[in-house]
Structure to design on (63 residues):
């Protein structure tokens, strides 16, 4: 299963990306690029919402 998300880029604009989990490993790509493994840490903010930290960057849910 592939799920779309908005991925911040170095220019502070946004680019489309994809992510998937295979055998408990997170893989991400930017645009239609190759899926690459990513280290993932899940934290929670004071409201209890999850914050994902991958490759030193934080990603929060965008509704």
């Amino acid at each position: 299963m592939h799920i779309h998300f908005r991925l911040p880029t170095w220019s502070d604009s946004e680019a489309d990306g994809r992510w998937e989990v295979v055998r408990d490993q997170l893989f991400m790509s930017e645009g239609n690029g190759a899926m690459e493994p990513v280290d993932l840490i899940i934290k929670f903010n004071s409201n209890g919402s999850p914050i994902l930290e991958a490759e030193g960057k934080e990603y929060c849910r965008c509704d």
